[in-house]
Amino acid sequence: MRDERTLHERVQASPEFAELRSRLRRFVFPMSAAFMLWYLGYVLMASYAPEVMGIPVFGHINVGILVGLLQFASTFVITGIYVRFADAKLDPVAESIRTRLEGH
Amino acid sequence: MSERLGSPILNISVFAAFVLVTLVVVFRVSRSNRTASDYYAAGRSFTGPQNGVAIAGDYLSAASFLGIAGAIAVNGYDGFLYSIGFLVAWLVALLLVAELLRNTGKFTMGDVLSFRMRQRPVRAAAATSTLVVSLFYLLAQMAGAGALIALLLQIPNSNTVGQGIVIAVVGLLMIVYVLVGGMKGTTWVQVIKAGLLLVGAATLVTWVLGRHGFDFSALLGEAVEENPSMETAQGVRELGERLLIPGLQYGASDLAKIDFLSLALALVLGTAGLPHILMRFYTVPNAKEARRSVVWAIWLIGVFYLFSLVLGYGAAALVPGGAERIATAPGGTNSAAPLLAYQLGGEFMLGVISAIAFATILAVVAGLTITASASFAHDVYANVLKRGVASPDAEVRVARRTAIVIGLIAIAAGILARNQNVAFLVALAFAVAASANLPTILYSLFWKRFNTTGALCSIYGGLVVSVVLIVFSPAVSGHPTSMVPSLDFDVFPLANPGLVSIPASFLLGAIGTLVGRPDEFADARHAEMEVRALTGAGSEKATVAPKTQPLPKITV
Asked: Which has the closest alpha carbon to B56: B30, B26, B90, B81?
């Protein structure tokens, strides 16, 4: 029986590609949900619990300033984690599929 | 404010020096502009770090430099909240959009959205929303230019003609950059500007902190002490410790709190839908470099927003008269950073900082113009009108003409929008981008069943809902701070429409997809798009070798 699928459809159905897609999605979807919740939680706290944000921690630095700076820190950390993940787990698989496909 | 501030001649000379240097660079790099790929995407020859700096240059607009520092100086913590939204938003671009978009498209957002859909209607929709978002953003930048001019050249807000002329000069200069330099020239302008901006801000930050023994807490203390209250048109406003907690701008009522949530949503989801940012990902040779450029951008932008926190509170603490004087200076709250520079380093520092702010506006406006003109020429002219058979030369010619038209519109709009807070106007552009573009981009990258009907519903739906809500919002009419205070048609209570328009667009896209018919060859096209997005196989290659790596072997 002839395979009537296009080249891309066959690649898409291959286990190697399925693995690449699932690795990407299993990382970026939960991570996106996590940082959105953390950010929206922060925004809601700023709107509805300003008195908590105003609790002094040391000197004039209060909870609000610290939590705000933590948003910066978490953004930098997530960026770093993603780059390490993508370099190690995504790029080699993507490259192997690409080389095979473009070598056709 | 009646006293003289700096010398206009010095201000103009520093700015003129910047213009001269960048023009020379633009002329030099433009000699190698030959193909459409050169004009739109700089031959895809920039490295990740170079593009990252350019993205920071594109993104750190006058809204960031003038708007956020001013918002912090006058509204305290609420200004800081803006910068957090602007930064966190980059994670959406990094995790979900940048690399897949680079692999799938060629020059514009429309390339990606129309990849597996019916070309003409979807490209027309993508171009429409690109033009609307870019025009909103342009409006904000030109308003910033007006504010700055008011301050620097001592042209009072009442002198519409004088301010108008200077806005026109800024607009004309920008047109020259885009026409001569194309994407390559524009990118180098962004890089130079980003460097100047970061160095300038770092200098001011060191100076401000140095005055307080490098103790940030002491700086906050002085800001609190110097600003017990301020007088506004609406009466006396208590400041003091309230500068350090959220709620000064958005905490007055339940409605204001919901408005703030709406703004926060628009900021975080808008970035990855801004056409001029998306287009920058096409200037690098592959997805890995696109990733590197986002990482560089995130670090530079993050550091810059930390600087702006110090600048904002620094202005409140050190500028004599504090928040009240800043709010009432020519240019309004946008004047905080220039006033702080004057306080610290006198005329010279004011001249330098203002020239940097000018350069910022000029560069961002150039980036917006090239994006809008590319979208019109590539999506509307070449693919909708000429059905994909226009010659690349004709396409670039159309792009150049469009750039002139857009520049002229920007000049007119800028004259109308003077004195609006720039960060606020930019937030509206973000709301439109988050509503019309982001849902469509995410659906088309991640949802197999998504189809032409769905794409048209989410683009036009998001666009119409957000723009209509803005028109009927208190931002446009009915309040003393509105754009048209004399009229009153604010039926929609929120100043930022994001909370309603973003979910509406997601919903419309889903409904449209379920109602509409599947596109022709949907499975095969989806397979091609997904394989290409994830692996880069078949993606657009660099036409010029990037300087740091050899030309990739192309064996297609």
From this structure: B90
Is B95 in contact with A31 (Cβ distance < 8 A)?
yes
Parallel, antiparallel, or unpaired for β A61-62 and B229-232?
unpaired
Helix (H, G, I), strand (E, B) or coil at A62: strand
Checking ipTM against 0.90, whether it exceeds it is yes
- β-strands A61-62, B235-238 pairing: unpaired
Query: In 3-state terms, what secondary structure has residue B448?
Result: coil
Task: Parse chain B into domains and list their residue ranges.
Answer: 8-535
Distance (Å, whole) CA B276 – CA B281: 9
SS3 per residue for B356-378: HHHHHHHHHHHHHHHHHHHHHHH
- Compute the radius of gyration of chain A from its Cα atoms: 22
**What CA–CA distance (Å, rounded) separates B484 from B478?**
7
d(CA B110, CA B437): 10
Tokens for B551, please give them: 């030309």
- Alpha-carbon distance B257 to B249, whole Å? 9
Does an H or E element contain B230, and which? strand B229-232
With beta carbons under 8 A apart, name residues in chain A contacting B84.
39, 42, 68, 71-72
Burial class (CB in 10 A: 0-12, 13-18, 19+), B480: exposed
CA B409 to CA B369: how far, in whole Å?
10
- Are B318 and B326 in contact by the 8 Å Cβ rule? The answer is no
Identify any residues that bridge with B238 across adjacent strands, giving them in sequence order: B229
- DSSP assignment of B102-166: HHH-SSSHHHHHTTTS-HHHHHHHHHHHHHHHHHHHHHHHHHHHHHHHHHHTT--TT-HHHHHHH
Phi, psi of B540 (to 5 degrees): -65, 130
Contacts of A27 in chain B (CB under 8 A): 95
Most A CBs within 10 Å, among B102, B534, B541, B555, to test the A interface = B534
CB contact under 8 A, A53 and B245: yes
Q: Which CATH number fits domain B8-535: 1.10.238.10, 1.10.600.10, 1.20.1730.10, 1.20.210.10?
A: 1.20.1730.10
Please count the CA atoms within 13 angstroms of the CA of B305 that sit on its side-chain side.
26
Q: Which residues does residue A58 pair with via DSSP β-bridges, in sequence order?
A: A61
How many C-beta atoms surround the C-beta of residue B23 within 10 A?
17
Hey, what are B405's tokens? 């038209």
Residues 6+ apart with CB under 8 A from B111: B104, B105, B378
Output the furthest CA–CA distance in chain B (Å, rounded).
Answer: 71
Element (H, E) at B217: helix B216-226
Phi, psi values for residue A56, rounded to 5°: -70, 140
Return d(Cα B178, Cα B181) in angstroms, integer: 5
B101-141 tens-digit pLDDT: 999 988 899 999 999 999 899 999 999 999 999 988 888 88
Distance to chain B for A52, nearest Cα, Å: 9
pLDDT in tens, B260-269: 899 999 999 9
Which residues are CB-contacts of B371 (< 8 A; sequence separation ≥ 6)? Answer: B108, B130, B134, B275, B276, B279
The partner residue sitting opposite A83, judged by closest CB among B295, B531, B534, is: B295
Single-letter amino acid code for the residue at B340: L
Angle (nearest 5°) at CA A29 between A24 and A33:
155
Which residue in chain A has the smallest CA separation from B222? A60
Taking only the tens place, the pLDDT of each residue in B381-434 is 888 888 888 888 888 889 899 999 998 988 888 777 766 666 667 878 899 999
Burial group, residue B65, by CB count within 10 angstroms (0-12, 13-18, 19+): buried
